[in-house]
Sequence to fold (202 residues):
Amino acid sequence: MDRQIENLNTRTALIVCGALVSEVLQLKAKHGWDAEVSGVPALLHNHPDRLPAAIQERIQAARRDFGRVVVVYGDCGTGGQLDHLLEKEGVRRIRGPHCYEIYAERAFDEMMAAEPGTFFLTDFLVSQFESLVIRELGLDRYPELRDDYFGNYSRAVYLAQSDDPALKEKAEKAAGQLALPLEVRQVGYGGLESRLLELMAE
Fold:
């Protein structure tokens, strides 16, 4: 029984944004982490005020079976509320304000300085673009809303995790639907890997 408890207490629960689950699972396999990945629905990004409570619920559930909890989220529009919650819970999260900066690292600030009106895409967002953007924002029913939502953007940048021609084609279609020129940057895991490695090594 004591050995079972010891084994449980050496394991890590990774509470992960739904938009990052695939990549985190790949990193878990690559590095052999003794961890379990628990995804939180990506659609909660449309309601950032609900994110802290949803993550807190996962933290408290994970503590019953795991010795350590790590949160793989940026601030993601919570205005510091997520960090306030994590400080109270004594839980660390990956560094970064959101997944675009985490993937692109220093290049993110350079891109924003060069062209503030940049709309970012990732593998996840490209693969789910029709449901998360077109249908969720009602653009399939009211295409005239495109200018209301995206009129201030001047380009789309696809921060690609994989070198997948099918995803690149979907990114080109997504940019076309938004009437934005597309730039593709192959960033791979970027800071998601290096920053998560730092946390897992602690």
User: Anything to note?
Assistant: Residues 1-7 have pLDDT under 50 and may be disordered.
